[in-house]
What does this fold into?
Amino acid sequence: MIIQTASWGELDIAEEQIYRFPKGMPGFEEETEFALISLEEGPFDYLQSTKEPGFAFLLGDPFVYFPQYEFDLPEADTEELDIQSQVVIRCIISLKEQIDQSTMNLLAPVVLNPEKNLGKQVVLHHSPYQTRHPLWSESGSQPSAKAGE
It folds into this structure.
């Protein structure tokens, strides 16, 4: 499938890279189909709309930056995504002009079922996590120590 992107122009995307988000993304319910584009350099991916070239999210593996990150996926979300065994968790990264001030949204992870190519951004209610956890400590060189701080 050929899609248009704002960052890379035209891309040929394999069918297994396409994830359907039946309810869209919070605030963007009409966007229901995304390509998961893995970046070879580091623990990052792009979640690119297949319809809107300028609509994409930078995703990161939260466990790289916050090894103690954990949550219980609500049963309703597990059923909605038809998760049997495999699940991939990514979180949206907000890049800042000063890169050491970039943050990760641990409150609303993107949950992906790679077996069924289904996805959902899940808002964790009653959670200690926030939408803007700093990716780096004050020194700017190491991941933050604890996700809940």
The chain has a mean pLDDT of 89.
